[in-house]
Amino acid sequence: MRSTLGWQAGRAGTPLRRTSLERRELRADDVAVRVDYCGVCHSDLHAVDAHTGAAPLVPGHEFTGVVTDVGPEVTRFAAGDPVAVGNIVDSCGVCAMCRAGQENFCHEFPTLTYAGTDRHDGTTTLGGYSREYVVRDEFAYPLPAGLDPAAAAPLLCAGITVWEPLRALGVGPGTRVAVAGLGGLGHLAVKFAVALGADTTVISRSAGKAGDARRLGGHDLIASTDEHRMTAARDRFDVVIDTIAVPHDVAPYLRLVALDGTLSHLGHLGPVTVQAADLLVGRKKLSSAGSGGRPATAAMLEFCARHNVTADVEVLPSARVNEALERLERNDVRYRFVLDMSDLPQNH
Ligand SMILES: NC(=O)c1ccc[n+]([C@@H]2O[C@H](COP(=O)([O-])OP(=O)(O)OC[C@H]3O[C@@H](n4cnc5c(N)ncnc54)[C@H](OP(=O)(O)O)[C@@H]3O)[C@@H](O)[C@H]2O)c1
Ligand SMILES: [Zn+2]
Ligand SMILES: [Zn+2]
């Protein structure tokens, strides 16, 4: 086994602790990655809050770093290559979804980067809040030159999660898009929609984010608490991307969807109650998405390099991980924390 350092959750409510972790020896198709930057996703917060302690939890599923070692069958990477890794690290490779390049929907369930189960040895996967990660080469992506590695890390979860539905829903010039919730996912949804040529509006609880919405390229911000404006925006958007991180009523957001338009519910992934009449009137569609397949992830990174899209990040030393989680909980970040892992020695 290879030994590294990382940040492990204790019981819910207790701070993450710096711990020594074991990584597997490289399989033939593995690469070892020195993790340099790992984004802090709201899903990490959900996982830490729900943690029972039954299995070890090291969060982190959007990171960038450098390849340090490769298994004998790896041809795509060599030591020294900059790479990015997201929230899926393996899949069956043979089911219809995998063959269609939608490994995120693998019939055997993709192996998640943390709190997943390794397909070969049955161990619980430990995430990117650590100095080293060992990953199957197919699930590492070359990080395009020109993308800042800290600001690019959040593309691998927040980015791809909004990219796939925007592309699948055909968002392009002239599409009217609304993004509900201006956080990690939301601000990247705005940047992507704008770069794709869509007419993009933010729906937020916080009217104070209007300046940011415009700076990100949005045309407008509607405060979700402003009943007058919410009513006036009825049937206005072809696509509504809902990234709100808490359980909420989707009816006010469905009302904003145009005839034959779609609400893509990407945020809090619990049960959703919908009145059929809210879909019936206007033939509206309710959809969801999560993560992305390998082809879409590679295409997104290429798009980001071409259009110079990365996240707006606040970089903190990894030792301040608990502060990052606590501030994320309070919605006190614009718009993604990224942990700088260089405070964890590589060979400890
Ligand atoms: N589908 C997937 O595969 C996938 C992938 C990653 C994350 N997620 C989930 O997506 C959600 C967003 O993640 P994130 O990392 O973008 O989180 P985030 O940075 O915290 O952003 C979430 C946004 O939701 C809004 N919000 C938060 N609390 C709210 C409340 N009480 N009422 C109404 N709005 C509230 C806020 O926007 P305003 O201040 O603008 O209102 C906030 O900025 C999380 O639940 C996360 O677990 C899903
Ligand atoms: Zn995530
Ligand atoms: Zn599969």
TrEMBL record:
UniProt keyword annotation of Oxidoreductase present: yes
Catalytic activity: a primary alcohol + NADP(+) = an aldehyde + NADPH + H(+)
SMART domains for the chain: PKS_ER (SM00829)
Pfam families reported in the protein's UniProt record: ADH_N, ADH_zinc_N
UniProt xrefs under SUPFAM superfamilies: GroES-like (SSF50129), NAD(P)-binding Rossmann-fold domains (SSF51735)
Keyword vocabulary terms for this entry: Metal-binding, Oxidoreductase, Zinc
UniProt keyword annotation of Glycoprotein present: no
Sequence ranges assigned to domain Enoyl reductase (ER) in this UniProt record: 13-339
GO molecular function list: alcohol dehydrogenase (NADP+) activity; zinc ion binding
Cofactor: Zn(2+)
Superkingdom field: Bacteria
UniProt similarity note: Belongs to the zinc-containing alcohol dehydrogenase family.
Protein name listed in UniProt: alcohol dehydrogenase (NADP(+))
Species name: Amycolatopsis vastitatis
